[in-house]
User: Fold this.
Amino acid sequence: MNTKSEGTGIRIRSLLWVALFAALTAVGGVIRIPTPPVPITLQTFFVYLAGDIIGSKKGAASQGLFLALGLMGVPVFSMGGGPAYILQPTFGYILGFPVAAWVIGTFIERLGRPVRYWEWLLINGAGGIVILCMGVIYLYVNMNVIVHKDLSWIHALWSGVLIFVPGEAVKIASAAALARRLRPLVARE
Assistant:
């Protein structure tokens, strides 16, 4: 095989990984538990895996693709899609997806060695913190400025962060366990 076709094959595989994780994140939004104002979904599980398995650039690209598709009107977000979705109180969490995948992938790449399980937990936890921080800030601003509904920081933290901590802990641990097994297989390609 010549170098040109090898490079093309690598680019195609990269694009397929990006598309796969964008699609998995969309599927994760279909599986949801409605909790006002922010539903519980499996989307963040796939954000963690994107950063864990395909790295910072491709992981962020997959979540950027997911975000772009949703804003173009493809109903990939947990409550639909379209440009008006930026007015949804939950949009800040989605904005955090590419950033979180990038943060996770960057930490793993900088280690430069096999990652221990407890390190996966901490790294995925950092990604979760990014998503929850961006989400709760957007939730607070959205509810108070756009919706004109008084929402205190305490209520925003409760309904936008604390209620999700147990579920996020399970998703973080599950993603870490799965990533330990899958990353070495993907890295060999």
